[in-house]
Amino acid sequence: MSRIGTIARRTFLIGSVAVAGGVAFGTYLAKKPIPNPLLDDLSDGEAAINPFVKITAEGVELITPRADKGQGSYSTQADLIAEELDIDPASALISPGLPHQAYFNGVVLEEGVPFPGYDDSWMAETARSFMSVPAKIFEMQLTGGSSTVPDMFDKLRTAGAVARETLKQAAAQRSGHSRADLTTEDGHVILPDGTKIAYADLAAEAAQIDPVTDVTLRPPEDWKILGTPRIRRDIPAKSTGAEKYGIDFALDGMLFATVRANPGIGGVLESYDASDAETMPGVEKIVPISHGIAVVATNTWYAFQAANAVNCVWGPGPYPESSAQIWDELDAALENPDRLDHRNRDDGDVEAALNGASPVEAAYRIPFLAHAPLEPMNATVLVTDELCEIWTGTQIPTFVRDHAMKILGFERDQVKVYGQPIGGSFGHRLEGTHVNQAVEIAQAVKGTPIKMTWSREEDMTHDYPRPAAVARGRGVVSEGQVETYDLSVAQSGLTGSWMGRLTGMSIPGPDATITTGSWDQPFAIPNYRVSGYRAPEMVPISSWRSVGASGNGFLHDTFLDELIAAAGADPLEERLRLCHHDPSRKVLEAVGALSGWDGPSLGENRGRGVAFVMSFGVPVAQVIEVTNTPAGVRLDKAFIVADIGPHTLDLANVESQLFGGMIFGLAHAINSELVYENHAPQQDNYHAYEGLRLYQTPEFEVQVLNNGTRIRGIGEPGLPPAAPALGNAIFAATGQRLREMPFNKNIDFV
Amino acid sequence: MKLTVNGEEYDVDVTPDMPLLWVLRDELGITGPKYGCGIAQCGSCTVHVDGSAVRSCQLAVGDLAGGAVTTIEGLSAPDALHEVQQAWIDHQVAQCGYCQSGQIMQAAALLDLNPSPTDNDIDAAMSGNLCRCGTYPRIRAAVKAAAVKLQEV
Ligand code: FES
Ligand code: FES
Known about the structure:
The structure holds 2 protein chains of 2 kinds. Chain A is of the alpha+beta class.
């Protein structure tokens, strides 16, 4: 183990977040109880037994504070509470609640610890448990990192159980029975004689007693909701047009707005001339905002038209102006020992093994990527002298609130953020620039609600993208086996870029995301090293579905495949031989069985590739079969096996997320990148950033295993193996090794 | 300017070059049709005009020429589901769901013209509708299931 790695493990110097939480704040702030936010605006006769369960005269309202971006989290959060509360989750109202510390995410920072996801040693678990401390103190109510299920699995079932027992206690006091003699069913407490009392009837009494917190969670064999086939609660409304996303939200008297900000993100607006635009139809007002201008109009389309007609003089963006310059910086960082950020994997003696051997070498590039969810960024805001109300789909409600407070000089209780259903995110809504802009506009037209919508062009060119990276692999094979594996990756640090925007603080220490998905794979290679080099901050960057693993999964697995090919070994068998983690081995074995694996060749012009990446603690193996047709490569079939821990809460949804994640990975591997010129990405709409279409989509088979020790989230882990599986399959079919994404730079697809 | 949407007449005061999408969404509050790209690349704004699937971001309201507009809100009789919608629910197609109004309107128009489409027909008809979440495998299955159901009726 390298020195840096050793220090990191001993002191938990894992970026400043852990330092701040685990060490500086000690246990006092960490243990301080959090008040229940629902108690603040409770009406007579209503009970808020804990921050997640509210009983009103109408029935039960469940608070589901993690955002639903399409991954089904509202449904799953409601099901977790309902399982213990004994209600039909479909009958309960749900609400994301207002932003509050009570909804902090205790798990999301765990990915930052320098222990791989398969390590469940005491040391690793202790380090992970520390990570909830800064999350609590910094009120990180955050949706991301595939953390909703692992964070909420016990929390919400406990909230349901506490509410159930408290309602039983209320019924016990009323009826004179003992609580132990009562049962619950379908929203009612049942007395020994069969009399049913609706929860709503007990609300007033339940509100008067201390919650019963001494509860035991039901064993999985007693579950009635979790693990049973059912229709996700949002799916009917999403099939009739009835679902109201943030972009559909409306208020009486509302006006419509859009913005145009400096194409070089962070650059200033030097001057503007809106004289033509001001006379255009529907235009109510044109105002300067931070880094740009905003148009308020009677219709979003009028606002779009007028925004394009404003003449803006922009200052330069505060980073290199072209992709060519950025690649040069990344290449330089990879060669610069001073830029070594961390080396969390350093087994055996790589240097000695490379010396004197003739190593296999390969160089890789992965591009900047936009999130480009189909619903563009938007927010509806009403500002008055006393209050700021914000309706928006967001993964970071506490930060959105804090930013609005700062812009307006308001106190905490003067800003309300109402989370809305989200039309895709992939990490885009971990940012709040668009909400800040909407708050500025609403301040300029105080008293009038505005709905600010980014045009698709504004959305794609003002996204904080997935970082570009360069990498180099060097390795040695001998006697048909992979002996030495050395991977170096250089990119800018996204954690610092992102946390800087969120908190205004700089984050010292290494940035694990540079090598997440490559250093932490469950393989035992005699000489095995992964090094992260940190390039300077350039384009502001952010988390993109599966974060570090989105690029590192490709780099790690592709180079492994190259070494296996050089060794002349079978891609699946050699991965299995090297893999020491039992659930991961079972995933590899299962994908072999599912795909009928008997080697990479499938006959003339056909081939298949296998790839394996563990991310967010979920081992995932994928196989893709391709045909090299005269017009280009065709994707025929895809197989996915994942181990999500001991329980599958909603199989249909898990399958959706797995093939959806894989399709997202394939789409970008095949045809998507952002190329910067004059500080701005040249790809501003889907014609230049295509994604995958139905005709290109292969057939899918998905299998879910339950051998892992801890329950996991599934929104992201399906993505990272997609690109390497495809590249490996293309190598099998054509002999051509693709080392740069998007692949269509070097090969055609049909 | 007058127009008919889901069987109801409306009178709107907008410039004739305004795309139908923005008349529906911001003037009439009919939000099933979605804005995704504004340049005919995503299909999330798809509606029917006189029964044909149309990208409403590309049709100026002044060019509607009396055509009857149907949005997803008017696809089925009130309180009933179109077979395509039912198939979408049964197959749990939607993830974020943002593209699905357009997908469903496109599929309904396809099955109207071609009650038993081949895989290639489905590919050709549905490939203008982008789904960033990657629901395509279930879209395929749902279109086929709806085709079977519609044949039975
Ligand atoms: S919004 Fe009309 S096709 Fe995309
Ligand atoms: S379901 Fe999200 S874009 Fe299709």
